[in-house]
From TrEMBL:
<protein>
    <submittedName>
        <fullName>Putative oxidoreductase SSP1627</fullName>
        <ecNumber>1.-.-.-</ecNumber>
    </submittedName>
</protein>
<dbReference type="InterPro" id="IPR057326">
    <property type="entry name" value="KR_dom"/>
</dbReference>
<feature type="domain" description="Ketoreductase">
    <location>
        <begin position="7"/>
        <end position="182"/>
    </location>
</feature>
<dbReference type="InterPro" id="IPR036291">
    <property type="entry name" value="NAD(P)-bd_dom_sf"/>
</dbReference>
<keyword id="KW-0560">Oxidoreductase</keyword>
<dbReference type="InterPro" id="IPR002347">
    <property type="entry name" value="SDR_fam"/>
</dbReference>
<dbReference type="InterPro" id="IPR020904">
    <property type="entry name" value="Sc_DH/Rdtase_CS"/>
</dbReference>
<comment type="similarity">
    <text>Belongs to the short-chain dehydrogenases/reductases (SDR) family.</text>
</comment>
<dbReference type="GO" id="GO:0016616">
    <property type="term" value="F:oxidoreductase activity, acting on the CH-OH group of donors, NAD or NADP as acceptor"/>
</dbReference>
<dbReference type="Pfam" id="PF00106">
    <property type="entry name" value="adh_short"/>
</dbReference>
Length: 246
């Protein structure tokens, strides 16, 4: 993991799940990690744990649905470390339901976090990376970004959108500014995503599948692999899913 050492990596949604696992794994391999999420106390506990293990980490309370918060996050990292090497757009929500339930507020929430949050992260970091003529933006999609199933139409739509944004970013920036764009598509993973589900039907389905999910460290290792590749090598997409599911 020599190409991870000393890289400045910002991770949104870093207070639990994939974000937390990624922060810890990258810090163990010498990265300087900047954790961002809404739960400040949880962020502080993870930063302390990383530091106790000999890693380097700082945190910022931030909400990805705020473009201003994302700009402040990028400025904090630049003021602290002088550069940003990797930005991981990890924050996401999944209050899935059938369309006829008309949970419009939850649709809005998924669009705000899963799509706008990704775009706000890109907007915050792209100017600095273009000036550096280097950088790496990693966006978390989902296997739902490749196939729609009943109860997840809106969630899948947001993850299809993340795929499109990531590919557009790659096409626009890889040759022009040497910025790498990677899409990570997790399958069922043991995170807090299911906690946002309010539909009784979908919650029942989620409970039935909860034991099959893979560790968030499986996704963190995929992220680390993409970062660790030499700068002339772009891992554009990685899908990671449980062995036990079709």
């Amino acid at each position: 993991m020599e190409n991870i050492q000393n890289k400045v990596v910002i991770i949104t949604g870093a207070s639990s799940g994939i974000g937390e696992a990624t922060a810890k794994l990258l810090a163990q391999n010498g990265a300087k990690v900047v954790l961002a999420a809404r739960r400040e106390e949880r962020l502080n506990a993870i930063v302390n744990e990383i530091k106790q293990g000999g890693g380097e980490a700082v945190s910022v309370k931030a909400d990805v649905i705020s473009a201003e918060d994302m700009q402040k996050l990028a400025k904090f990292a630049l003021n602290t470390y002088g550069r940003i090497d990797v930005w991981v757009n990890n924050a996401g929500v999944m209050p899935s339901s059938r369309l006829h339930e008309l949970r419009v507020g939850e649709w809005d929430q998924m669009i705000d976090v899963n799509i706008k949050g990704v775009l706000y992260g890109i907007a915050a970091v792209l100017p600095a990376m273009r000036e550096q003529q280097s950088g790496h933006i990693i966006n978390l999609s989902s296997t739902a970004g490749y196939q729609v199933s009943p109860t997840n139409a809106v969630y899948a739509a947001t993850k299809f959108a993340v795929r499109a944004i990531s590919e557009g970013l790659r096409l626009e920036e890889s040759s022009a500014s040497r910025i790498r764009s990677t899409l990570i598509a997790p399958g069922l993973t043991k995170t807090e995503l299911f906690d946002s589900i309010t539909s009784p039907e979908v919650q029942t389905i989620a409970n039935q599948l909860s034991g099959v999910g893979i560790s968030p460290y499986s996704i963190a290792r995929a992220i680390a692999f993409a970062i660790n590749e030499p700068d002339d090598t772009l891992i554009s997409e990685i899908m990671v899913r449980p062995t036990a599911l079709p």
